[in-house]
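User: Here's a chain of 500 residues. Predict its fold as tokens.
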Amino acid sequence: MERDYHLCLSPDALEADATLLDTVREAGVSTIWLTGFLYGYWHYPVEQAVRWREQVQRRGMKAHVVNVPLGHPGDALGAMHGNVPLTPPRHWRMGVRSDGSQYAGTSLHPPACEENTEAIRLLARHGFRQAFLDDDFRLAQSPGTVGGCFCPEHRQRFLQKYGYAESRWEELLHAVQQRRLSPVLRHWCEFHCDELTSCFRTLQRAERGTQLGIMVMYMGSEKAGIRLGDYSRVPFRVGEGMFDDGSFGSLKGRMNELFSVLFHRRFVRPEMAFSETTAYPADRLSARHLAAKLVISTLADVRHTMFMSGLSPFPRSYWETLAPAMRKQAQLHRQVAGQQPAGPLKHFWGEAGRYVGDDDPFSLFMAMGVPFEVSDTPPRDGWVFLGDQDATELPPSTWKDSRAVRVVRPHVRCEGKLCRRVEEALPALFALKQEIVATLKDVPWVEEDKPVVCVWYPKIFTVALWNLSEGEERLTVRFGERRYTVSVPALDLALVSLSG
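Assistant: Prediction complete.
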């Protein structure tokens, strides 16, 4: 399947710019996702979406809808005219945090699932057969939060389901506060995963022949009510989180974004994977940084790029930068699609990270210029870079007979000769790099101590280099005694064949 490009647009954006559809079609966009049901409101009538679908199809593009099912804890829509309600209607119930305070959005009480079901049916009657649920379809307010609604109703249902005495509720609250993966907290995460999955399956059954996809938040997982394995067979938007120049403009931000996408790709085939290539607000991520985001989908083999900017569109000038970048990434992606990266460094986000983690992975190692691979389970060899909760919650027996060197941050307790405390900063990581490359055989690496992602595809004898610097860099790939030199533009990707 070829790399393709999708764009989310509101009717307001289309009606404000009569030539926008022609511009994005010429840039290479093949599918438009129109605004649908918004957490209890039909702010844009379905008939309006039908009219714009006809305009989209007339230009040879496809048209589907994006629903926002539960409501977001903050304004994540960026309406052009400021006239879209920010919270669900009053007959929808508020959520309750673990400290007892209330919030709107990302909680699931009747009639939210019921009204979303009716919305799917109404859209289907008007000919819309594909819909995405935006990333407020979760039960945590933000990344790193152990979610679920702690209201009296959910409390009672939870205690009854697992046969717990009332005293266990305080144990749960303490475990949430301490981020400790106790049996009761594990059950709590499974409880609200069951609730969210049940609603998703209800929506799937709402109208026969309708395909429903889920947009997963940055590092989204079980603590947010998202049991990732439950969505492996549906369209799956991998979670990103760096939506402005302040976040994506930092090296750590880029590596966190890449880490999250690679983590989620463990659970979905590339043909079903969509990106969350978002700028928010629409003009806060520069066009060059938005174009650089396309590299992440190439490296992670995400076949569908979904551009998004809330209800306001990107500035028109962005498409002058995006169009050539889209064509280039599609061409590069074609060469590496389906290939499995390999390397001595190990990307791993484990069960503790998924259930109680702070969603701050040890991600900067990917900028060392040494190849890495993604591990579903604790690696048995190589160098594995552990997030704080995985480092402390995994029992020592996990590493019995393992040759893997565990790398953790300096403040994390870690014992044994195969455990290293290393600051998550380039100078410390480049020092570690020299130790690692001295042991490598039949593995390429970048000689310069410059921030670059080096991905090794051994089956096609090719290296992908993502230059993470804001300027062009001349990089040397070392492979045994051979050296390959290439110049890579700022924030761009280059492929280097090592077969010659």
